Amino acid sequence: MLRIKSEQMKALEAAAMKHFEDEMLEHMAVFAPRLYEIHGDKIFREVIRLGIQRAKTYRFTMRGPVQFYIETMFTLGCDFDSDPQYPWCREILEDVETQDELVRADHLFDVINDYLDAAVGVDSRYVVIALQRLNNIGPDILNMITADSKGSLLAGLKEFYPEKTHIVGKKALSRLIEEGFAVAKKHGIDSNKGSALISILMFMFGHGVIDDPLYPWIRNTLEDPSIADQESRADKLAFKTMTYARAVTEYLS
User: Fold this and answer.
1) For the chain, N or C: smaller number of CB within 10 Å?
2) What is the pLDDT of residues 5-36, one digit of tens each?
């Protein structure tokens, strides 16, 4: 009888994992070509490995569900599973009554597709329009923040991206803004402008955007030692955000 030593088994598992990563890298380069142009193999492998680990925590181990989990990270943000904007994601992922991972993955696929139809539109039409509005009124949103900063920010989000604010809902958006202000304070950028900007970034790219490896320019700006005060840091981050929004708009258009 052929016996495989534990060391050999680990080597086989590592080889299989490397092969799967290579396949996912090739697939995601086609799935998100613009991001791949920007980041290349290293960052994409980091996200893929993170996706494999997180998918496993939700009992996704088969190729199809794991691949879909990774794709969703690129679509809704790496931390989509805990994002207050998408509470239905965690509900489906943690559904203990449905043990079959293919059934749960199919359910999540259907719900996300419904969301994308309503909030993103055909060929990302609503996203393009929202980013165009953000380019035009983004500075005004940051400057319109009043004593009722969270309320005025919520109104600003509705103004430039009504499709998404409608489907996400006021309750979830209020939770997201609360989180955005807390994250801004944690990173020493808790002026009204800085807090609003962090909230907008979380709204557009996912609530974990600060640590999302797909958007390294955000953390790099927050941690840039050459920027002395939080107002300057907020201005620099706002400039980079608008630059990124313009680039994405041109690409999607």
Assistant:
1) N
2) 556 545 546 677 888 999 999 999 999 998 89
pLDDT for 105: 96
Residue 164 CB coordination number (10 Å): 21
**Angle value at C-alpha 185, between 180 and 220, nearest 5 degrees:** 80
Please compute the mean of the pLDDT values over residues 145-171 and round it to a whole number.
84
Q: pTM score, two decimals?
A: 0.89
- 148 has pLDDT over 60: no
The arithmetic mean of pLDDT across residues 45-72, rounded, is 95
Q: Contact at 8 Å (CB) between 65 and 108?
A: no
**227 dihedral zone (left: phi>0; alpha: psi -120 to 50; beta):** beta
**CA 141 to CA 241: how far, in whole Å?**
13
- The sign one gets for the Cα dihedral 78, 82, 87, 93 is positive
Distance (Å, whole) CA 223 – CA 243:
19
Round the average pLDDT of the chain to a whole number and report it: 88
Please give the angle made by the CA atoms of 143, 171 and 138, to the nearest 5 degrees: 20
The residue behind tokens 């419904």 is 114
Cα 51 from Cα 243, distance rounded (Å): 28
- CB-side exposure of 83: number of CA atoms within 13 Å? 26
